[in-house]
Amino acid sequence: MFRIRLRAIFAGANVRICTAFWLFGLINNVLYVIILTAALDLVGPNVPKGVVLLADVIPSFLMKLCAPYFIHAVPYSVRVILFVIISTGGMLLVALTPPYIDGGTIGTKMAGVVLASTSSGLGELSFLGLTHFYGPFSLAAWGSGTGGAGLIGAGAYALATSYGVGITNTLLASCLLPIIMLGSFFIILPRQPLKHTANATKEHSRSPKFTHVDEDDEGDPRDEDPSAEGESLLRQSIHSTSTARTAPNWQARFLRNLRRSRSLFFPL
């Protein structure tokens, strides 16, 4: 009975889609977990660990607050490549900067943490938006991957440093994790839904913006009321003029949406 219910729940699930989104959720959040787990090793005992927490949370929060208004202009394939570059560069800064006991600057390490956090915030926006094209199982797989990132990231770092791998080598090994994101997107994930949507968008943009009227259905222009035609043209002219004057540019729209989002934090 349990097996029958389980099969009914997962009926229609695509293994490649679920695998790809599970890896998206895992890799996008595992660096965040590793950085928090290594907080003491990054800044030493004399610096508050909240510094690492703030550097790991605030950039991601700002990206989630601002990026939804412009990130849609960047194709998903380009985004994934940028995420890999940014997160790998950030982890390299964290790993290759000498420890605080050797004179390494904490600011350089925090710059790497900021880069990794920025990539994580942008990745969360993008992959959650990507679930729109792949159905509810992709969202479930993403959530499962993000949950596994906490256990896998903290556990892997603790095991590696406990068995003599070393902090630097462990952080260097974590720099290779974002490459899995490339394989998940370009190899595992089926690209047909994205290509179909892109083709449909192109066809829609190429379609004419007017309705064809058969010549047989056209009335005699002399039968039309000249005053009605003049009023119609006048209304169209006024509407187009007011639209041109009141249509905000992207900067104005961004600031307006940013002000609207303020009510999420200060509702009163």
Tell me what you see in this structure.
With 268 residues, this protein is mainly alpha-helical. It contains twelve helices and no strands.
Can you give me a brief rundown of this structure?
This protein has 268 residues and is an all-alpha fold.
Structure characteristics:
single chain, 268 residues, mainly alpha
In which range does the helix fraction lie? over 70%
Classify the secondary structure makeup into a structural class.
mainly alpha
Q: What is the string of SSEs from the N terminus onward?
A: HHHHHHHHHHHH
What Rg is obtained from the alpha carbons, in whole angstroms? 26 Å
| End-to-end C-alpha gap | 51 Å
Mean pLDDT: 80
Largest sheet: none
Oligomer kind = single chain
Total number of strands: 0
Query: How would you describe the shape?
Result: globular
Which spans of ≥5 residues are poorly predicted at pLDDT below 50? 209-247
Count up the helices.
12
Instruction: Please report which band the strand proportion falls in: under 5%, 5-15%, 15-25%, 25-35%, 35-45% or over 45%.
Output: under 5%
Furnish the topology, listing elements before pairings.
Blueprint: H1 2-9, H2 15-37, H3 39-43, H4 50-66, H5 76-96, H6 106-130, H7 136-162, H8 167-174, H9 178-188, H10 192-206, H11 226-246, H12 250-261
Helix pairs in contact: 2-6, 2-7, 2-9, 4-6, 5-6, 5-8, 5-9
